[in-house]
């Protein structure tokens, strides 16, 4: 998440538009089905191949939901490190192969339960703690905290009485941390636990990328793109380019965010992944088509990446979101309006008029009604297509009202109208 939906025909298809997620791509337990989902909706038609490699053979079940998504469930008989490969038309999808640790069968670990787990948000660089009840289980408890940057840190474990442990941890970064709690090497129920550290106001959905560097590029030419991080908070920006050859890439800070510059050396398809705090931004990964002469020796697929710790940026409009209005080309004098509701209205009834802006260019229609005691109860504007509008309004008081109809910043002919109720 966030997921993109294409309305109308798909402009681009391919493995880079397939998404996958679910607990079965993060961890699992020996002999217990692990599940995840794959969304191929945006990728067009093709074949999806799933492979599970590791210490034992996997029994894979696959269910196509017929809506562009499918459920996958797999069971393995041995614990250990597994790699799950997801290929669409023989190409790995983003983040594939996934590394998954399958823990031994739960055994005694299923008896354990966690108590007093911190709710809400804990502060970075301050200790936090929770309790683990053994409920009569025999064995060793082990816990570690994994930060958003994938740095691991041990937790301090203390036996308070014969059936209860205190687990203290000391987060050093902001963001979502995972706390792995294992008993005899096996995750206890619910582990890994997720916890939010610090005021993590980072919103990857607010980050946008644009520029020539996301379109068609040429070999040997420097090309750039802008990653707009305004109002997205401070986070970790990671840009990775997969393609036929390594690309020379750098990242510099600009007013609205960050400028990424790169030079491809071999023609072909490049895939650019842009992540903010480990989350894909909207549209990532981007498919970039490169043409031109070969300026390097062809080899296998190469990966280049750059990681930047960003600072919080705010768009020029102060704290508001950086919305820039389009430049409208319109002529309000060409608008026609008609209907009883422009002259006379009745209390408690729906009064109606129509506005025809078909010849007036593009703009936004504004309607306001003001009466002897303030604004009217409700105004309802319905666009019926091709810049034709139907307006209904409801008034509850008698008297003379003023009706304003504007097309952008300009009054339409006859506005403001005087309406008698």
UniProtKB/TrEMBL annotation:
Its main location: cytoplasm. Pfam families: Filamin. Keywords: Actin-binding, Cytoplasm, Cytoskeleton, Repeat. GO terms for cellular component: cytoskeleton. It comes from the Eukaryota. Filamin repeats lie at residues 10-102, 104-197, 199-290, 327-421. This is Filamin.
């Amino acid at each position: 998440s966030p997921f993109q939906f294409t309305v109308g025909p798909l402009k681009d298809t391919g493995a880079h538009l397939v998404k996958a997620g679910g607990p079965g791509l993060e961890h699992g337990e020996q002999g217990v089905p692990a599940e995840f989902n794959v969304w191929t909706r945006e990728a067009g038609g093709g074949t999806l191949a799933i492979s599970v490699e590791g210490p034992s053979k996997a029994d894979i079940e696959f269910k196509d939901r017929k809506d562009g998504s499918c459920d996958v469930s797999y069971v393995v008989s041995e614990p250990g490190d597994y790699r799950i490969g997801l290929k669409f038309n023989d190409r790995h999808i983003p983040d594939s192969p996934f590394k998954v640790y399958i823990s031994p069968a739960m055994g005694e670990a299923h008896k354990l339960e966690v108590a007093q787990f911190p709710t809400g948000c804990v502060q970075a660089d301050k200790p936090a703690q929770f309790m683990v009840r053994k409920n009569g289980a025999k064995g060793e408890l082990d816990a570690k905290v994994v930060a958003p940057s994938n740095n691991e840190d041990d937790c301090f474990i203390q036996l308070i009485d014969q059936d209860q442990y205190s687990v203290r941890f000391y987060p050093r970064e902001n963001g979502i941390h995972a706390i792995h709690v294992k008993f005899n090497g096996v995750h206890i129920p619910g582990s890994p636990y997720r916890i939010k550290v610090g005021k993590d106001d980072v919103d990857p959905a607010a980050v946008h990328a644009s520029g020539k560097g996301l379109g068609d590029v040429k070999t040997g030419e420097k090309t750039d793109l802008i990653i707009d991080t305004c109002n997205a908070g401070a986070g970790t920006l990671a840009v990775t380019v997969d393609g036929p050859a390594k690309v020379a890439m750098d990242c510099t800070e600009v007013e609205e965010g960050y400028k990424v510059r790169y030079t491809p050396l071999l023609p072909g398809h490049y895939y650019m992944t842009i992540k903010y705090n480990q989350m894909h931004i909207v549209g990532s990964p981007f498919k970039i088509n490169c043409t031109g002469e070969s300026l390097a020796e062809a080899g296998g697929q190469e990966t280049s990446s750059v990681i930047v710790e960003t600072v919080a940026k705010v768009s020029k409009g102060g704290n508001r979101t950086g919305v820039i209005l389009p430049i409208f080309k319109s002529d309000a004098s060409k608008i026609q309006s008609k209907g009883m509701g422009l002259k006379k209205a009745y209390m408690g009834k729906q009064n109606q008029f129509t506005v025809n802006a078909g010849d007036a260019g593009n703009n936004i229609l504004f309607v306001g009604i003001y009466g002897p005691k303030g604004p009217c109860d409700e105004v309802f504007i319905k666009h019926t297509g091709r810049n034709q509008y139907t307006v209904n309004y409801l008034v509850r008081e008698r008297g003379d009202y003023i009706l304003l109809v504007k097309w952008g910043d300009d009054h339409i002919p006859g506005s403001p109208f005087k309406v008698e109720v």
